Amino acid sequence: MKLNVIERLMCLQLLPRTGNIGTLKCVARADDMLGLSDEEIKDFEFVNDGAQMKWNAKGQEDTELPLGSEAKKLIIQKLMEMDKKELLEARHISLYDKFIGGEEEKA
């Protein structure tokens, strides 16, 4: 799955923080994949000043992440739930397209 920094951060927000042990282990693995490594923090010149997070143009590029199928399912479920409840925001469009958009186009 190819995601840029903002998409990775949004995915972290979409993953559930409660559930059964299997779900929580899946989320923990996904957190490790989606979170920025020390190397990426340096490469992207990532800064969190408390009110805002900033990074350079490298962070806007998609990075291939080995996100597991269960984690993808959890993100898709949350996006679909938000869509159904009309809670999606413009910032979710790229995530929706990457996780769900291709599936809808095939149907």
Explained architecture:
The chain is mainly alpha-helical and 107 residues long. The chain has one domain. 56% of the residues lie in helices and 7% in strands. It is built from five helices and four strands, in the order E-H-H-H-E-E-E-H-H. A hairpin with a 4-residue loop joins strand 2 and strand 3. The protein is globular, with a radius of gyration of 14 Å. The two termini are 21 Å apart. The model has no long low-confidence stretch (mean pLDDT 92).
The count of strands amounts to 4
Low-pLDDT segments? none
End-to-end distance, in Å?
A: 21 Å
Can you summarize the main beta sheet?
Answer: 2 strands, antiparallel
Discrete helix count: 5
- Class per helix and strand makeup: mainly alpha
| Spatial order of the strands forming the largest sheet | 1-4
If you compute it from the alpha carbons, what radius of gyration comes out, rounded to the nearest whole angstrom? 14 Å
Inertia-based shape:
globular
Taken in chain order, the helices and strands follow as EHHHEEEHH
Helical residue percent?
Answer: 55-70%
* Residue-averaged pLDDT: 92
The proportion of strand residues reads: 5-15%
Key structural traits:
5 helices, two-stranded antiparallel sheet, mainly alpha, 107 residues, 7% strand
